[in-house]
C-alpha cells in the first residue's frame, strides 16, 4: 500500500503575516517616538522633579532597611508598620480593624493615618523588598508626583507656559511645608490627587455654565448650554478622586475642600454673572459627586468615627499646634538659607508649614497686583488670607509669645471634623495658592515684551532661591534581630498569633514595631504606637494603657534595677499574657539593660529557650 508524499504548505500567508507584523511594529514605534517628541518638555519636567526628589531623600537609598529619617524616626517606624499591614490585603488578610497591634483590642485603621490606598497599591513592593523600601519610594514619589500634577494643571488648565508651570509645580511639590512633612508624614505629602480634584471641579464648573458670557479660565466666550454629559463624567470622576484621597490622607482632602470653598465664594463675588448662570448646575454636579462618593465611603467613615476603636474627635491641642506669626517671614531650617535657630518657631521638624520667607511673600504680593486675571487672583488672595489666618490657631503667637489676641481659628475650633486638623497645617494650602500667583505673573511676562519679560521671572527666581530645599538628614538604625528576619519567630508564635517583645512598643519608643514590619505583620503585638479611644472619657489618645507586667518591664528597661518578684507578680504576668492572647515573650541581647530584663523574665515565666539571637518564653 502506497501513500502520497505530503505537499509543502503554501508559504505566502505566513510571509504576509510576518510582513504585516513588522509593519505594525514599525507603526507602533513611530507613534511612540512621536508621542515622546510631542511630550518631551513634560517628560523633561517629570525627570527633573524625580531627580530632585531622589536627591532630597538620597540618605535613605543606600540601604532603606538600615537608614531612617533622623528628624522624625518614630513616625517613620509607624508608617512602615502601616505599609506592612496594608500590604496584607494582597494576601487576603486585611480588615479596617486590625488585630496586629494593641492586642487584644486592635487598631481602627480609618482612625489612623494609615495611607491604605498607597499601602495596597505598593503591596507588591512591600512584600518583595520590605516596607522600608516602600517608604523611601513613597517619600520621594509624593514630592515628585505632587509637583508634576500641579505642573500639568497649570500648563493644561491655566494654559500657562511650561516654564511658568514648572516654577509653580516645583513650589507646590518642594516648598518648605512639603519638604518638612516628608519627615515621615506620607499622608500629608501624597497630594498628587489634589490637582486632579481641582481640575475636575473646574471642569464641572465649565460644563455647568450655560453662557452667554466670558470665562477667564475658559479663554473665551461661551454661548452653549450646560454640557450635561460632561457634568456627569466630571461628577463621577470627582467622586472617584475624593474617594481615593480619603484612603490616602483625609486631612489633605479637608484642607483642599476648605480652600476650594473659599475660592469658589470669592470667585462668585467677583463674577456674579457666572455664579448666577452656573450655580444650579454646579451645585447639582457637586451633589451627584457627593452622593456617589458616599456610596463607597459611607461605611468606612462610620467605622472611623463610631466603629470599634474609632474616635470622633481630634487628639491634638489646637493652641499647641498653632503657627507662629513670625514664622511666615522666616526661612525653614531645611532650606539653603535657613537657620536651625528658627526651629523654635514651630513644634517640630515635620511642621515647617509657614516658613515661606519674606522675599517670597513680597514677590507674591507684587505678582498678585500685576498678574492680571483679576477674578482668579482675587480668589487666590482671599483663600490665602483665610487659610493663613486659620493657621494662627485660637490665639496669635508672635516670636514664641502668646499675645492674647484671638485668632480666626477660635471661630471654628471644636466643630466636628475641624478639630482633627492641626491649625498650622492650614498653611500648606498657601503653597499652591502662591504658586498660582507666580505662574500667572511669569506667564504674563513671558507672553509680553519689554523689561517685564526678564524682570518678573528673575524676581521670582530670586525669591525662590532662599527656600530651595536641602537633603533630609538621615541616620543609621539597629538591625532587626535574626530571630525575626530569619523567620525563627514561627517556632514560638503561630501566624497571626501575638508576640510580646520586651520592652513593649510605646508611642515614644515604637522600635519593636519594626519586628512586625520585617515579618510583613505576620504576628500581632500588644500596646504600640497608634491613635485609639484611650483618653479621658473615651476620647482620642496616643497609645493605650500599660498592663502591670508591661509597666514593670518598662521600668526595668529604663532603670536597670531588678525588682522583687513574688507569687503575685507571677500571677499578674500570667493574667497579662492571657489578656494579650500571647503565645511567646521575646528578648534580644541589644535591649536596654538586657541582663536585668532577662533575670526578671526568668522569675516571671521560668527558664527561657534560645532561638537564634533571642531568648524566648512560651506563655
From the N-terminal CA to the C-terminal CA, the straight-line distance is: 84 Å
The stretches of 5 or more residues where confidence is low (pLDDT under 50) are 218-223
Question: How large a portion of the residues is in β-strands, by DSSP E?
Answer: 5-15%
How many distinct helices?
Answer: 22
Which strand order does the major sheet show?
Answer: 9-12-14-13
Principal-axis shape equals globular
Helix content: 40-55%
Rg measurement, Å = 29 Å
Number of β-strand runs:
14
User: What class, by secondary structure content?
Assistant: alpha+beta
Protein topology:
Elements: H1 12-38, H2 40-56, E1 67-69, H3 73-87, E2 97-98, E3 107-108, H4 116-121, H5 123-129, H6 131-156, H7 162-174, H8 176-181, H9 186-189, H10 194-208, E4 213-215, E5 220-222, H11 228-246, H12 250-270, H13 272-306, H14 358-370, H15 374-390, E6 395-398, E7 401-406, H16 430-447, H17 452-464, E8 474-476, H18 482-485, E9 498-501, H19 513-518, E10 531-532, E11 541-542, H20 548-559, H21 567-580, E12 582-588, H22 594-605, E13 609-611, E14 614-618
Helix pairs in contact: 2-6, 2-7, 3-5, 3-6, 5-6, 6-7, 6-10, 7-16, 10-11, 10-13, 11-13, 12-13, 12-15, 14-16, 14-17, 15-16, 16-17
Can you put this structure into words, describing what you see?
With 619 residues, this protein is α+β, with helices and mostly antiparallel strands. It contains 22 helices and 14 strands. The chain has a four-stranded mixed sheet. Strands 1-8 form a two-stranded antiparallel ribbon. Helix 2 (40-56) runs antiparallel to helix 6, helix 6 (131-156) runs parallel beside helix 10 (194-208) and helix 14 packs antiparallel against helix 17. The radius of gyration is 29 Å and the shape is globular.
Amino acid at each position: 500500500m502506497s501513500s502520497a508524499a505530503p505537499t509543502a504548505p503554501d508559504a505566502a500567508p505566513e510571509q504576509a503575516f510576518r510582513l504585516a507584523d513588522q509593519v505594525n511594529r514599525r507603526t507602533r514605534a513611530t507613534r511612540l517616538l512621536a508621542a515622546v517628541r510631542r511630550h518631551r518638555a513634560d517628560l523633561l519636567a517629570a525627570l527633573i522633579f524625580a531627580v530632585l526628589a531622589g536627591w532630597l531623600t538620597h540618605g535613605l537609598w543606600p540601604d532603606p532597611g538600615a537608614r531612617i529619617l533622623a528628624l522624625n524616626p518614630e513616625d517613620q517606624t509607624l508608617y512602615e508598620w502601616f505599609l506592612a499591614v496594608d500590604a496584607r490585603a494582597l494576601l487576603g488578610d486585611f480588615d479596617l480593624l486590625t488585630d496586629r497591634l494593641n492586642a487584644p483590642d486592635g487598631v481602627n485603621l480609618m482612625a489612623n493615618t494609615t495611607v491604605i490606598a498607597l499601602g495596597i497599591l505598593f503591596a507588591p513592593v512591600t512584600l518583595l523588598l520590605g516596607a522600608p523600601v516602600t517608604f523611601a519610594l513613597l517619600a520621594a514619589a509624593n514630592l515628585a508626583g505632587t509637583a508634576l500634577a500641579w505642573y500639568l494643571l497649570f500648563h493644561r488648565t491655566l494654559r500657562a507656559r511650561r516654564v511658568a508651570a514648572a516654577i509653580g509645580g516645583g513650589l507646590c511639590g518642594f516648598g518648605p511645608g512639603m519638604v518638612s512633612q516628608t519627615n515621615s508624614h506620607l499622608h500629608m505629602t501624597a497630594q498628587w490627587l489634589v490637582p486632579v480634584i481641582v481640575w475636575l471641579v473646574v471642569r464641572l464648573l465649565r460644563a455647568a455654565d450655560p453662557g452667554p458670557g466670558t470665562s477667564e479660565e475658559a479663554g473665551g466666550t461661551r454661548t452653549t448650554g450646560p454640557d450635561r454629559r460632561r457634568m456627569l463624567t466630571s461628577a463621577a470622576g470627582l467622586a472617584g478622586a475624593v474617594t481615593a484621597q480619603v484612603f490616602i490622607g483625609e486631612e489633605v482632602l479637608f484642607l483642599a475642600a476648605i480652600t476650594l470653598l473659599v475660592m469658589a465664594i470669592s470667585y462668585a463675588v467677583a463674577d456674579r454673572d457666572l455664579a448666577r448662570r452656573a450655580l444650579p448646575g454646579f451645585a447639582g454636579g457637586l451633589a451627584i459627586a457627593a452622593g456617589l462618593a458616599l456610596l463607597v465611603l459611607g461605611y468606612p467613615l462610620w467605622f472611623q468615627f463610631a466603629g470599634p476603636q474609632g474616635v470622633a474627635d481630634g487628639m491634638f491641642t489646637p493652641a499647641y499646634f498653632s503657627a507662629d506669626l513670625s514664622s511666615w517671614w522666616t526661612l525653614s531650617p531645611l532650606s539653603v538659607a535657613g537657620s536651625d535657630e528658627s526651629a523654635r518657631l514651630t513644634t517640630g521638624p515635620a511642621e515647617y508649614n509657614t516658613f515661606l520667607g519674606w522675599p517670597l511673600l513680597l514677590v507674591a504680593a507684587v505678582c498678585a497686583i500685576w498678574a492680571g486675571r483679576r477674578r482668579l487672583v482675587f480668589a487666590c488672595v482671599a483663600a490665602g488670607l483665610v487659610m493663613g489666618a486659620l493657621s494662627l490657631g485660637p490665639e496669635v503667637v508672635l516670636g514664641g509669645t502668646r499675645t492674647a489676641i484671638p485668632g480666626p481659628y477660635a471661630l471654628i475650633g471644636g466643630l466636628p471634623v475641624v478639630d482633627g486638623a492641626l491649625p498650622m497645617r492650614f498653611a500648606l494650602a498657601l503653597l499652591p495658592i502662591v504658586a498660582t500667583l507666580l505662574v500667572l505673573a511669569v506667564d504674563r511676562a513671558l507672553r509680553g515684551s519689554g523689561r517685564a519679560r526678564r524682570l518678573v521671572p528673575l524676581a521670582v527666581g530670586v525669591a525662590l532661591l532662599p527656600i530651595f530645599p536641602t537633603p533630609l538628614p538621615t541616620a543609621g538604625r539597629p538591625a532587626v534581630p535574626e530571630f525575626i528576619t530569619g523567620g525563627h519567630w514561627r517556632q514560638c508564635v503561630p501566624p497571626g498569633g501575638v508576640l510580646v517583645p520586651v520592652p513593649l512598643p510605646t508611642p515614644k519608643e515604637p522600635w519593636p514595631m519594626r519586628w512586625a514590619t520585617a515579618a510583613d505583620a505576620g504576628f500581632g503585638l500588644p500596646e504600640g504606637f497608634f491613635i485609639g479611644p484611650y483618653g479621658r472619657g473615651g476620647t482620642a489618645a496616643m497609645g493605650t494603657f500599660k498592663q502591670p507586667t508591661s509597666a514593670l518591664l518598662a521600668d526595668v528597661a529604663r532603670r536597670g534595677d531588678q525588682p522583687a518578684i513574688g507569687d503575685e507578680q507571677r500571677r499578674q504576668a500570667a493574667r497579662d499574657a492571657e489578656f494579650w492572647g500571647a503565645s511567646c515573650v521575646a528578648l534580644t541581647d541589644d535591649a536596654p539593660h538586657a541582663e536585668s530584663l532577662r533575670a526578671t523574665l526568668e522569675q516571671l515565666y521560668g527558664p527561657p529557650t534560645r532561638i537564634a539571637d533571642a531568648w524566648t518564653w512560651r506563655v
